[in-house]
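Just curious. Invent one:
>
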Amino acid sequence: MAVTLSVLDLAPIPDGGDAGTALRNSLDLARRVEQLGYHRYWVAEHHNMPGVASAATAVLVAHLAQVTTGLRVGSGGIMLPNHAPLVVAEQFGTLEALHPGRIDLGIGRAPGTDGTTAAALRGARNVADFPQQLAELLTYFEPDETRTVHAIPAIGHKPPVWLLGSSGFSAKLAGELGLPFAFAHHISARNTLPAVRVYRESFRPSEALREPYLMLSVAVVCAETQERADWLAGPAELRFLSRHHGHPIKLPTPETAASYDYTDEDRQVLQRKFGSHLIGTPETVHKGLNALAQDTGANELMLTTMTHNHKDRVRSYELLAT
Protein backbone atom coordinates (compact mmCIF):
# COMPACT_ATOMS: atom_id res chain seq x y z
CA MET A 1 0.00 0.00 0.00
CA ALA A 2 1.26 3.44 -0.94
CA VAL A 3 -1.00 5.08 1.64
CA THR A 4 -0.78 4.90 5.45
CA LEU A 5 -3.11 2.35 7.07
CA SER A 6 -4.72 2.67 10.50
CA VAL A 7 -7.46 0.95 12.52
CA LEU A 8 -10.93 2.01 13.72
CA ASP A 9 -12.42 -0.22 16.43
CA LEU A 10 -15.89 -0.40 18.02
CA ALA A 11 -15.00 -3.24 20.41
CA PRO A 12 -17.70 -5.49 18.89
CA ILE A 13 -19.59 -7.83 21.23
CA PRO A 14 -20.47 -11.09 19.44
CA ASP A 15 -23.52 -13.18 20.18
CA GLY A 16 -22.56 -15.38 23.12
CA GLY A 17 -19.89 -12.90 24.25
CA ASP A 18 -19.74 -10.05 26.74
CA ALA A 19 -18.31 -6.54 27.02
CA GLY A 20 -15.33 -7.60 29.10
CA THR A 21 -14.16 -10.08 26.47
CA ALA A 22 -14.79 -7.56 23.68
CA LEU A 23 -12.65 -4.94 25.42
CA ARG A 24 -9.82 -7.41 26.04
CA ASN A 25 -10.02 -8.37 22.35
CA SER A 26 -9.48 -4.70 21.49
CA LEU A 27 -6.34 -4.62 23.60
CA ASP A 28 -5.12 -7.78 21.87
CA LEU A 29 -5.86 -6.34 18.43
CA ALA A 30 -4.03 -3.10 19.24
CA ARG A 31 -0.92 -5.02 20.26
CA ARG A 32 -1.05 -7.06 17.06
CA VAL A 33 -1.60 -4.21 14.61
CA GLU A 34 1.25 -2.31 16.23
CA GLN A 35 3.51 -5.26 15.40
CA LEU A 36 2.12 -5.23 11.85
CA GLY A 37 3.02 -1.57 11.32
CA TYR A 38 -0.38 0.14 11.38
CA HIS A 39 -0.05 3.84 12.19
CA ARG A 40 -2.86 4.65 14.62
CA TYR A 41 -5.71 2.94 16.48
CA TRP A 42 -8.94 4.81 17.21
CA VAL A 43 -12.04 3.74 19.09
CA ALA A 44 -15.53 5.07 18.39
CA GLU A 45 -18.05 6.35 20.91
CA HIS A 46 -21.41 4.58 20.73
CA HIS A 47 -24.05 4.18 23.44
CA ASN A 48 -26.95 1.83 24.15
CA MET A 49 -25.91 -0.63 21.44
CA PRO A 50 -25.87 -4.30 22.51
CA GLY A 51 -23.07 -5.16 20.08
CA VAL A 52 -20.65 -2.32 20.89
CA ALA A 53 -18.47 -2.00 24.01
CA SER A 54 -16.58 1.23 23.24
CA ALA A 55 -18.95 3.61 25.07
CA ALA A 56 -16.39 4.89 27.62
CA THR A 57 -13.99 5.97 24.89
CA ALA A 58 -11.40 7.86 26.95
CA VAL A 59 -11.13 4.97 29.42
CA LEU A 60 -10.50 2.50 26.60
CA VAL A 61 -7.94 4.81 24.98
CA ALA A 62 -6.01 4.88 28.25
CA HIS A 63 -5.81 1.08 28.34
CA LEU A 64 -4.84 0.89 24.67
CA ALA A 65 -1.98 3.32 25.24
CA GLN A 66 -0.84 1.31 28.25
CA VAL A 67 -0.52 -1.97 26.33
CA THR A 68 1.24 -0.49 23.28
CA THR A 69 4.50 1.44 22.94
CA GLY A 70 4.59 3.50 19.72
CA LEU A 71 1.13 3.15 18.21
CA ARG A 72 -0.89 6.37 18.12
CA VAL A 73 -4.18 5.84 19.94
CA GLY A 74 -7.23 8.03 20.19
CA SER A 75 -10.91 8.67 19.69
CA GLY A 76 -12.73 8.19 16.44
CA GLY A 77 -14.40 9.99 17.88
CA ILE A 78 -15.60 11.71 20.99
CA MET A 79 -19.14 12.95 20.23
CA LEU A 80 -18.75 16.43 21.69
CA PRO A 81 -22.46 17.27 22.16
CA ASN A 82 -22.60 14.35 24.62
CA HIS A 83 -19.97 15.92 26.90
CA ALA A 84 -18.94 19.08 28.67
CA PRO A 85 -15.92 20.46 26.75
CA LEU A 86 -14.09 20.98 30.04
CA VAL A 87 -14.30 17.28 30.86
CA VAL A 88 -13.07 16.23 27.40
CA ALA A 89 -10.10 18.61 27.71
CA GLU A 90 -9.26 17.23 31.15
CA GLN A 91 -9.50 13.62 29.97
CA PHE A 92 -7.41 13.99 26.83
CA GLY A 93 -4.98 16.40 28.43
CA THR A 94 -4.38 13.73 31.06
CA LEU A 95 -3.90 11.08 28.37
CA GLU A 96 -1.44 13.28 26.48
CA ALA A 97 0.47 14.04 29.69
CA LEU A 98 0.78 10.33 30.45
CA HIS A 99 1.55 9.25 26.86
CA PRO A 100 3.14 12.30 25.19
CA GLY A 101 3.08 12.32 21.41
CA ARG A 102 0.82 9.27 21.10
CA ILE A 103 -2.73 10.57 21.67
CA ASP A 104 -5.25 11.79 19.07
CA LEU A 105 -8.47 13.62 19.91
CA GLY A 106 -10.99 13.00 17.15
CA ILE A 107 -14.18 15.03 17.60
CA GLY A 108 -17.61 14.44 16.06
CA ARG A 109 -21.02 16.05 16.36
CA ALA A 110 -23.31 13.04 15.81
CA PRO A 111 -25.03 11.47 18.84
CA GLY A 112 -23.56 8.00 18.37
CA THR A 113 -26.83 6.58 19.66
CA ASP A 114 -30.62 6.90 19.60
CA GLY A 115 -32.50 10.07 20.51
CA THR A 116 -33.58 8.97 23.97
CA THR A 117 -30.06 7.99 24.99
CA ALA A 118 -28.65 11.18 23.48
CA ALA A 119 -31.02 13.19 25.65
CA ALA A 120 -29.85 11.27 28.73
CA LEU A 121 -26.21 12.00 27.83
CA ARG A 122 -26.47 15.62 26.82
CA GLY A 123 -28.67 17.30 29.37
CA ALA A 124 -29.15 20.85 28.08
CA ARG A 125 -26.49 20.67 25.35
CA ASN A 126 -27.60 20.93 21.72
CA VAL A 127 -25.92 19.54 18.62
CA ALA A 128 -26.55 22.88 16.87
CA ASP A 129 -24.05 24.46 19.27
CA PHE A 130 -21.23 22.21 18.06
CA PRO A 131 -18.96 24.97 16.64
CA GLN A 132 -19.18 26.88 19.93
CA GLN A 133 -18.55 23.71 21.94
CA LEU A 134 -15.50 22.96 19.81
CA ALA A 135 -14.14 26.48 20.24
CA GLU A 136 -14.60 26.19 24.00
CA LEU A 137 -12.82 22.84 24.05
CA LEU A 138 -9.81 24.18 22.17
CA THR A 139 -9.37 27.12 24.56
CA TYR A 140 -8.90 24.80 27.53
CA PHE A 141 -5.59 23.55 26.13
CA GLU A 142 -4.07 27.03 26.24
CA PRO A 143 -3.19 29.12 29.33
CA ASP A 144 -5.48 32.12 29.85
CA GLU A 145 -5.27 34.13 33.06
CA THR A 146 -8.51 35.94 32.24
CA ARG A 147 -10.45 32.70 32.70
CA THR A 148 -11.71 31.53 36.07
CA VAL A 149 -12.11 27.88 35.00
CA HIS A 150 -9.03 25.92 33.89
CA ALA A 151 -8.58 22.36 32.61
CA ILE A 152 -5.38 21.91 34.59
CA PRO A 153 -4.13 18.63 33.03
CA ALA A 154 -4.84 19.97 29.54
CA ILE A 155 -2.70 23.12 29.68
CA GLY A 156 0.47 22.38 27.76
CA HIS A 157 -0.75 18.88 26.89
CA LYS A 158 -2.79 19.36 23.73
CA PRO A 159 -3.05 16.29 21.51
CA PRO A 160 -3.67 16.70 17.78
CA VAL A 161 -7.36 17.54 17.30
CA TRP A 162 -9.21 16.06 14.35
CA LEU A 163 -12.71 16.72 13.07
CA LEU A 164 -14.78 13.72 12.01
CA GLY A 165 -17.75 13.79 9.70
CA SER A 166 -20.00 12.07 7.17
CA SER A 167 -21.21 15.22 5.39
CA GLY A 168 -19.99 18.61 4.27
CA PHE A 169 -20.61 20.39 7.59
CA SER A 170 -17.58 19.10 9.47
CA ALA A 171 -15.54 19.08 6.26
CA LYS A 172 -16.05 22.83 5.89
CA LEU A 173 -15.44 23.53 9.58
CA ALA A 174 -12.25 21.41 9.59
CA GLY A 175 -10.99 23.29 6.56
CA GLU A 176 -11.76 26.71 7.99
CA LEU A 177 -10.00 25.84 11.26
CA GLY A 178 -7.01 24.24 9.52
CA LEU A 179 -7.55 20.87 11.23
CA PRO A 180 -7.03 17.34 9.91
CA PHE A 181 -10.28 15.77 8.70
CA ALA A 182 -11.46 12.16 8.98
CA PHE A 183 -14.40 11.28 6.74
CA ALA A 184 -16.65 8.28 7.48
CA HIS A 185 -16.62 6.71 4.02
CA HIS A 186 -17.98 3.48 5.52
CA ILE A 187 -21.10 5.35 6.65
CA SER A 188 -21.73 7.76 3.79
CA ALA A 189 -19.79 6.75 0.68
CA ARG A 190 -21.92 8.87 -1.65
CA ASN A 191 -20.88 11.99 0.26
CA THR A 192 -17.16 11.19 0.22
CA LEU A 193 -16.05 13.09 -2.88
CA PRO A 194 -18.25 16.16 -2.20
CA ALA A 195 -17.00 16.39 1.40
CA VAL A 196 -13.37 15.98 0.34
CA ARG A 197 -13.81 18.78 -2.17
CA VAL A 198 -15.40 21.05 0.45
CA TYR A 199 -12.55 20.33 2.89
CA ARG A 200 -9.83 21.17 0.39
CA GLU A 201 -11.59 24.28 -0.94
CA SER A 202 -12.27 25.69 2.54
CA PHE A 203 -8.86 24.84 4.03
CA ARG A 204 -6.92 27.65 5.68
CA PRO A 205 -3.40 26.99 7.01
CA SER A 206 -3.11 26.99 10.80
CA GLU A 207 -0.62 26.26 13.55
CA ALA A 208 -1.78 22.65 13.36
CA LEU A 209 -1.47 22.19 9.58
CA ARG A 210 0.05 24.03 6.66
CA GLU A 211 -1.90 21.98 4.12
CA PRO A 212 -4.93 19.65 4.24
CA TYR A 213 -4.59 16.21 5.79
CA LEU A 214 -7.35 13.75 4.90
CA MET A 215 -8.15 10.34 6.35
CA LEU A 216 -11.00 8.08 5.25
CA SER A 217 -12.50 5.31 7.36
CA VAL A 218 -13.28 2.24 5.25
CA ALA A 219 -15.14 -0.95 6.18
CA VAL A 220 -13.24 -4.06 5.09
CA VAL A 221 -13.29 -7.81 5.60
CA CYS A 222 -10.33 -9.69 4.18
CA ALA A 223 -9.81 -13.46 4.00
CA GLU A 224 -7.84 -15.97 1.94
CA THR A 225 -10.79 -16.50 -0.45
CA GLN A 226 -13.70 -14.38 -1.66
CA GLU A 227 -16.14 -16.99 -0.44
CA ARG A 228 -14.81 -16.91 3.11
CA ALA A 229 -14.68 -13.11 3.17
CA ASP A 230 -18.35 -12.95 2.13
CA TRP A 231 -19.18 -15.51 4.83
CA LEU A 232 -17.37 -13.51 7.51
CA ALA A 233 -19.05 -10.25 6.41
CA GLY A 234 -22.57 -11.64 6.89
CA PRO A 235 -22.85 -10.96 10.65
CA ALA A 236 -22.16 -7.23 10.27
CA GLU A 237 -24.85 -7.02 7.60
CA LEU A 238 -27.45 -8.78 9.74
CA ARG A 239 -26.54 -6.69 12.77
CA PHE A 240 -27.06 -3.50 10.77
CA LEU A 241 -30.34 -4.76 9.33
CA SER A 242 -31.67 -5.65 12.79
CA ARG A 243 -30.84 -2.18 14.04
CA HIS A 244 -32.44 -0.69 10.92
CA HIS A 245 -35.65 -2.51 11.85
CA GLY A 246 -35.47 -1.19 15.42
CA HIS A 247 -34.13 -4.34 17.09
CA PRO A 248 -30.39 -3.88 17.83
CA ILE A 249 -28.53 -7.11 18.51
CA LYS A 250 -25.08 -8.41 19.27
CA LEU A 251 -22.94 -9.49 16.33
CA PRO A 252 -24.51 -12.79 15.18
CA THR A 253 -22.66 -15.86 13.96
CA PRO A 254 -21.96 -16.36 10.24
CA GLU A 255 -24.30 -19.34 10.34
CA THR A 256 -27.14 -17.22 11.69
CA ALA A 257 -26.53 -14.56 9.06
CA ALA A 258 -26.39 -17.10 6.24
CA SER A 259 -29.66 -18.74 7.29
CA TYR A 260 -31.61 -15.47 7.71
CA ASP A 261 -34.57 -15.04 5.35
CA TYR A 262 -33.75 -11.70 3.68
CA THR A 263 -36.53 -9.94 1.80
CA ASP A 264 -35.95 -8.03 -1.43
CA GLU A 265 -36.28 -4.81 0.56
CA ASP A 266 -33.67 -6.06 3.04
CA ARG A 267 -31.25 -6.74 0.22
CA GLN A 268 -31.77 -3.25 -1.20
CA VAL A 269 -31.09 -1.72 2.23
CA LEU A 270 -27.91 -3.77 2.57
CA GLN A 271 -26.75 -2.88 -0.93
CA ARG A 272 -27.10 0.82 -0.19
CA LYS A 273 -25.24 0.45 3.11
CA PHE A 274 -22.59 -2.12 2.26
CA GLY A 275 -22.04 -1.51 -1.46
CA SER A 276 -18.94 0.55 -0.72
CA HIS A 277 -17.48 -1.95 1.75
CA LEU A 278 -14.39 -3.81 0.57
CA ILE A 279 -14.83 -7.54 1.07
CA GLY A 280 -12.55 -10.16 -0.44
CA THR A 281 -9.03 -11.44 -0.82
CA PRO A 282 -5.97 -9.28 -0.06
CA GLU A 283 -5.59 -8.54 -3.79
CA THR A 284 -9.22 -7.44 -4.11
CA VAL A 285 -9.24 -5.28 -0.99
CA HIS A 286 -5.86 -3.69 -1.74
CA LYS A 287 -7.08 -2.82 -5.22
CA GLY A 288 -10.16 -1.13 -3.75
CA LEU A 289 -8.14 0.75 -1.15
CA ASN A 290 -5.64 2.00 -3.71
CA ALA A 291 -8.44 3.17 -6.00
CA LEU A 292 -10.12 5.03 -3.15
CA ALA A 293 -6.86 6.70 -2.15
CA GLN A 294 -6.18 7.72 -5.74
CA ASP A 295 -9.71 9.08 -6.29
CA THR A 296 -9.71 11.17 -3.11
CA GLY A 297 -6.04 11.99 -2.55
CA ALA A 298 -6.39 10.63 1.00
CA ASN A 299 -3.24 10.71 3.11
CA GLU A 300 -4.42 7.82 5.27
CA LEU A 301 -7.04 5.06 5.30
CA MET A 302 -8.50 3.83 8.59
CA LEU A 303 -9.84 0.29 8.32
CA THR A 304 -12.74 -0.98 10.40
CA THR A 305 -13.57 -4.68 10.46
CA MET A 306 -16.50 -6.49 12.10
CA THR A 307 -16.41 -10.29 12.35
CA HIS A 308 -18.02 -12.61 14.87
CA ASN A 309 -14.78 -14.37 15.73
CA HIS A 310 -11.92 -12.25 17.06
CA LYS A 311 -9.32 -14.41 15.33
CA ASP A 312 -10.93 -13.71 11.95
CA ARG A 313 -10.76 -9.97 12.65
CA VAL A 314 -7.08 -10.18 13.55
CA ARG A 315 -6.42 -12.27 10.45
CA SER A 316 -8.08 -9.68 8.22
CA TYR A 317 -5.68 -7.00 9.45
CA GLU A 318 -2.74 -9.38 9.09
CA LEU A 319 -3.58 -10.11 5.46
CA LEU A 320 -3.88 -6.41 4.60
CA ALA A 321 -0.58 -5.51 6.25
CA THR A 322 1.40 -7.72 3.87
In short: The radius of gyration is 19 Å. Strands lie at 4-9, 40-43, 72-79, 103-108, 161-165, 181-183, 214-222, 278-280, 300-304.
